[in-house]
Amino acid sequence: MNNKVLVGMSGGVDSAVAALKMQQAGYDVTGAIIEIWDPQDQSECGTSPETSRPWSERGCCHVPMVKYLCEEILSIPFIMVDRRDAFRKKVMDPFREEYLKAQTPNPCVTCNAQVKIHELMALADSLNIQKVATGHYARKTHSPLTGAFHVAKGKDSKKDQSYFLAKLQSSEIERLEWPLAELTKEEVREIARNSGFPVSEMVENMEACFVSDKNLKSYLDRWIPLEMKGQWEAVGQSGEKIGSMEGGLGLTRGQRRGMGTGFGERVYVLDIIPERKQVVLGSKESLSVEECILEDWSGPDPDSIKTPLSVVFRSSMKPVACQISWYSPGQKKVGLTLMEPSPWVSPGQVGAILFDREIILGAGTISLSGNEES
């Protein structure tokens, strides 16, 4: 039996405890850190010393902490692999491009599927290691409904990260171990403290690692074409002008914050139209939709699934009952119909389809238009 396991580590409490739990379970553990972001490139985030934490204090790619944990506490070997180029091409560049097209991407879902887990699997293969473990709060399950492995919600509903793993493939999930699946965050922190980990120095990262402290606007500003800057028209649902606002790119459908009070009533972003430099505003009730498209579908044939389904558009939202069917099989597009209207449907975000309300069947990127030929 090959009892080797490669554990992805970031320098945070969760991945460190994951490595410890695998070690205690009798595995021969090797730690690995996938370097995806260069601390010297902080300026690319559009951040400044006055408004951001230094990268050494963030929970991503903390190489010195991983080295200390592996060598001084866990006594395991560790490997660092540089995947900054892959991260830039697969996560950062698309993130910027989607925002410039008035979408709202989810970089963490993309990063897990296309960089972190993918690269950990490739590294494990090169080391002849079958199993890979991470510190995510999620669990895996094999379903007789599909004959495949799926990501499912972990025990700690407040920390559950299954949504961010929604685009993983069955073959990847089969090889993965999530040692924190049946633990809560407090239990993990207690294990870390009792094991001598320097918990107070292990920073937890709660946001996209390359856009810190809500500086999305300054990050995007350096990439926005000059003709897209300046004043944009604020229009109502019928196209009538109701005011103006500074810039429109970087806004999200459903956004209320930053809309000000100059429109006479509480308004929300309903749509962003870059080619006209217009932002469509309306009431909260106008946000709700019953249908959308899920592009780049990652799950099984939707027409073959004969069980009640639900969907989430955010990691923490309550699942909404739904139905799915092919919209364009050749283009991997699935049509989604909600059993009750939802205001949380934002183009560019990820819709994760659940069965049994906690097991992810598959996922796709939200689109509100289906102009492409099927």
From TrEMBL:
InterPro entries: MnmA-like, MnmA-like_C, MnmA-like_central_sf, Rossmann-like_a/b/a_fold
Source taxon at top rank: Bacteria
One example of a Gene Ontology biological process annotation: tRNA wobble position uridine thiolation
EC number(s) per entry: 2.8.1.13
Xref: Gene3D superfamilies: Adenine nucleotide alpha hydrolases-like domains, HUPs, Translation factors
Catalytic activity, as annotated: S-sulfanyl-L-cysteinyl-[protein] + uridine(34) in tRNA + AH2 + ATP = 2-thiouridine(34) in tRNA + L-cysteinyl-[protein] + A + AMP + diphosphate + H(+)
Keywords: Disulfide bond, Methyltransferase, RNA-binding, Transferase, tRNA processing, tRNA-binding
Keyword DNA repair in annotation: no
Pfam family, one: tRNA_Me_trans_C
Residues covered by the tRNA-specific 2-thiouridylase MnmA-like C-terminal domain: 297-366
Top EC class of this enzyme: transferase
Record has Aminoacyl-tRNA synthetase as a keyword: no
GO MF annotations, alphabetized: methyltransferase activity; tRNA binding; tRNA-uridine 2-sulfurtransferase activity
Protein name (Swiss-Prot/TrEMBL): tRNA-uridine 2-sulfurtransferase
